[in-house]
Task: inverse folding
């Protein structure tokens, strides 16, 4: 197919010209010829340095070692400075220390924003103040956080020393102490390794109110009081826990007893309900048995002589069928017709009695259901047709069919109500 393409398209598929071969500029590594072959280091051992002539190895200092070295050097320099200052320090010849040392109070940890007038107002409550000297930095001129207060009377200074320690001024609790530089022999200030820094005890819970005083007996007494208070709190906490445990046990026992009583009451109620149901079931069974017995007696009475007894009520004063032979007897001229008539009458009577028995059965069931809810022997006696309270209504010797017929069709002076069987008076006309 390509041979049919035009020349301009065939030129696109034409191969390129081959690459011309050019000789390499130098030989390949495997083609080069070495002047000296490869050899070991044995010929060069004589050129090495003798180990006995080599200098000892030097070890570089690590970062931790350098930091430790600097710290030691700093401590040594500080010790030298402290020793130099201790030789020059003399509190009795200090020009800044003026006034009576036994009337001067030292106040430390003062807020930097607290002024001299504020200190005067706070400490004048203990007595008249003679002089207040607040210490400032010589370089920056800012307050250093402590001051000296000189009272006019020594008793006022003792009162402030006793009651003002831990007092909060401008949001900070100050530390109050006597001036120990001129009153305590061998005492050194804090900048020379002594002072308040060496008398701190414990953590922040100990140093909140009273901290920095150099009265060890006072601290020991506080520690004993604090230990006693802690033990008392622990004992009270243990007693509270034990009391709460006993209360919880008693509550659990009461709850369990209440639950047992509730369960027992529920079971007793269920047992009483079961007994009531069983009693109702027995009473219903006894009523059912009595009803069946009554129906059986009625059926027996209706099947045996009920038809003959009901015949005079329908036929008036006519003699029975099995009476003495007369003009309509079996020997008379109308004997077969009379027999067929009697048969039809007996069939109709049996059908009627069956319908009446069924109706009476339904009535008795309804009455028994209504009276069974009230639950009384009197209702059952009335349902049987005996009448309430020994009342004689003239229906004692009649069956259920005759009584119901009488109750429904009786008129005149009174009638029996079908609801309860009582003899009711007729309404006046």
Result:
């Amino acid at each position: 197919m390509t041979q049919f393409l035009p020349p301009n398209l065939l030129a696109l598929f034409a191969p390129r010209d081959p690459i011309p071969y050019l000789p390499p500029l130098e030989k390949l590594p495997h083609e080069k010829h070495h002047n000296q072959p490869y050899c070991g280091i044995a010929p060069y051992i004589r050129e090495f340095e003798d180990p006995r002539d080599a200098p000892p190895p030097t070890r570089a200092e690590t970062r931790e070692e350098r930091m430790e070295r600097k710290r030691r050097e700093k401590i040594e320099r500080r010790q030298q400075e402290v020793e130099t200052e201790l030789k020059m320090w003399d509190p009795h010849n200090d020009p800044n220390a003026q006034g009576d040392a036994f009337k001067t109070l030292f106040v430390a940890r003062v807020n930097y924003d607290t002024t001299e007038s504020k200190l005067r107002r706070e400490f004048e409550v203990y007595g008249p103040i003679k002089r207040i000297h607040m210490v400032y930095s010589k370089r920056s001129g800012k307050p250093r956080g402590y001051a000296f207060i000189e009272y006019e009377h020594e008793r006022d200074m003792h009162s402030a020393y006793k009651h003002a320690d831990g007092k909060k001024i401008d949001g900070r609790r100050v530390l109050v102490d006597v001036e120990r530089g001129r009153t305590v022999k061998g005492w050194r200030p804090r900048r020379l390794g002594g002072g308040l820094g060496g008398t701190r005890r414990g953590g922040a819970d100990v140093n909140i109110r009273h901290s920095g005083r150099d009265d060890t007996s006072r601290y020991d007494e506080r520690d004993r009081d604090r230990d006693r208070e802690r033990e008392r709190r622990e004992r009270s906490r243990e007693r509270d826990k034990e009391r709460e445990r006993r209360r919880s046990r008693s509550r659990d026992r009461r709850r369990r007893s209440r639950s047992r009583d509730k369960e027992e009451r529920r079971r007793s109620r269920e047992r009483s309900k079961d007994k009531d149901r069983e009693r109702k079931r027995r009473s219903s069974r006894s009523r059912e048995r009595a009803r069946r017995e009554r129906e059986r007696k009625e059926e027996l009475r209706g099947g045996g002589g009920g038809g003959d007894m009901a015949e005079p009520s329908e036929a008036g004063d006519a003699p029975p069928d099995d009476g003495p032979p007369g003009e309509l007897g079996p020997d008379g001229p109308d004997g077969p017709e009379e027999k067929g008539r009697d048969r039809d009458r007996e069939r109709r009577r049996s059908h009627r009695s069956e319908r009446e028995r069924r109706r009476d059965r339904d009535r008795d069931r309804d009455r028994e259901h209504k009276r069974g809810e009230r639950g009384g022997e009197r209702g059952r006696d009335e349902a049987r047709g005996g009448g309430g309270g020994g009342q004689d209504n003239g229906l004692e010797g009649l069956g259920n069919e005759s009584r119901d017929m009488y109750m429904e069709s009786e008129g005149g002076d009174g009638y029996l109500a079908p609801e309860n069987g009582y003899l009711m008076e007729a309404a006046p006309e």
User: Anything to note?
Assistant: Residues 216-262 form one domain.
